[in-house]
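User: DUF6456 domain-containing protein, Ancylobacter novellus:
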Amino acid sequence: MAERKLAERKLDRIEVEIAGERSAVTIDLEESPLGWLARRRGRDGRIFISPAQLVAGERLRADFTRAQMTPRLTADWGAVARSSTRGAPGLTIPEAALAARQRLSRALEAAGPEFSGLLMDVCCFLKGLEQVEQERGWPSRTAKVVLSLALDRLARHYGLSEAAQGPARSRTRVWKAGDQAP
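Assistant: Predicted structure for DUF6456 domain-containing protein:
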């Protein structure tokens, strides 16, 4: 049964840059509401969220996971053992988790207070859009539009865009003729 479940999963590899280091990560497109939106198209034929928006949302989720902020279902008995051996009363946080919390905080601050809650709900806690609309009392299909705006702001914070753009006009630096003899 577990093998069948694994075979049904839709995995995809994306490039993520964290702290200046690029790495390829595998994401489960069935698990994330963003993956579902990235595969769907609207009536006009366009996808609901762009690849840059997907990468931005998954990057936020990766930092959330690395920050060890996911809710626990059981007690963390490891903290008791660590606190007795080091003398600190359970306050030791790995540096990687602390750095991820700082990145997460900066990203949510850049998104602003109007979008940060929605980004946390959809990207980090994996709530569906219908659930978000219901909890917030929004009309149907508004969460998709607001999420798109929030992911645009998040992608801008991470420096992600759909296309590379250079200056409109640049100075010619070198002009060489092809009249050189062999």
